[in-house]
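User: For a reading group we're discussing how well predicted structures match intuition. Take Amino acid permease-associated region. Before you show the prediction, I'll give you the sequence so everyone sees exactly what went in.
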Amino acid sequence: MSVGNSQPQLKRELGVFGATVMGLGSIIGTGVFVSIGIAAGIAGPAVILAVAIGAIVAIFNGLSSAQLAANHPLSGGSYEYGYKYLTPSFGFTAGWMFLVAKTASAATAALGFAAYLLNILGINSDWVVPTAFLAVVVMTLIVLNGIRRSNFANIAIVSVTILSLGFLILVCLPSTIQRGSENFTPFFTGSLADVLHASALMFVAYTGYGRIATLGEEARSPRQTIPKAMIVCLAVTMLLYIAVATVTIGAVGVDVLAGAIQQTKAAPLEVVARDVTGVGGALVLAIGAMTAMLGVLLNLILGLSRVLLAMGRRHDAPRFLSRLNQQQTTPYWSVIVVGVAIALLVLVGNVKTTWSFSAFSVLIYYAITNLGALKLSSQERLYPRWIAVLGLLSCLFLAFWVESSIWQVGLGLIVAGLIWHKVRQGVSC
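Assistant: Thanks. Here is the predicted 3D structure of Amino acid permease-associated region, as structure tokens, for the group to look at:
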């Protein structure tokens, strides 16, 4: 469904640079500050390979998202694409998996923020869960008041984050040059299954690229700008992630990086910075981490509540979730439900579990995205069909390399969601 000419349109101001910065702001956060430590514990030094595999899969999915957004520029992402190009069940499943994935990502961001804050303050990690819970409450209240992050704030957050990671790379580089050969030997400490498991987790670290696909109405020449920004953004992110993984493992060894997850609950890079530079360097790194993860948490509450609003309007979720406040600026019930869901997942207290749930769910979500892209006509298609085919196959393949208990629960949630969807359809009829 296209937007009618009578509707007011956003001004087309974004070029490739602006769209790339927006994408970087949505991507760089929990993935680099938390998941590299988790994935290193699974794959060892070969986590560097997992970072690259995750990026390749993300590029396939990003290009499929971009061409769907170019032809169907509505909010809701693959939830809407599933309805338009596939079936209501596929559309519902995409929306449901998005909610599960991003709620788990938000919980991981809250736990990561809390771990970095407490570690730098020297407070016992037993307080990570209560602190993360409080962060979710505060961010939910901010969203309820309708406060949105501006482009200026986004650029500031990206700048602080990249500067702190650049600092980490520079301070770790001498130790990496000195000890790298021993810390990277052997490179493969586990099996191919471990590398694929780590790849599935690292893929989630890229998934903010979907934000670029939603900028079609604001971008100059969107059919050229969005794909270019997507590829540049993912390439920059991959190089940054590989650099961080390489220097942290090279400087302190994979055991220290992976063990930091257990030690701090969710602040591995702060432990590395403290080990290499002392408290001062750890503080610089922690500030970048906390800023990034609070931004991620705020954006996810905003985004999740809007998807829940769209599902409520379509009656795929309870209708009361589509209610707006008196000023017509905030879907207050949706925001509250999202905040409660994230807070409950925070109580799990284990970033590996929450991140793994996010990995399975988001891979299923993007499998549906690629399936939708395969339904585009030759006139609508921007890229060859094989891109969507490889995206679909790689998503389905990686999804089942997470721990079996995670994908089994994930499949159960899909079935439960589809039962709800069918029951709601029956009631509506």
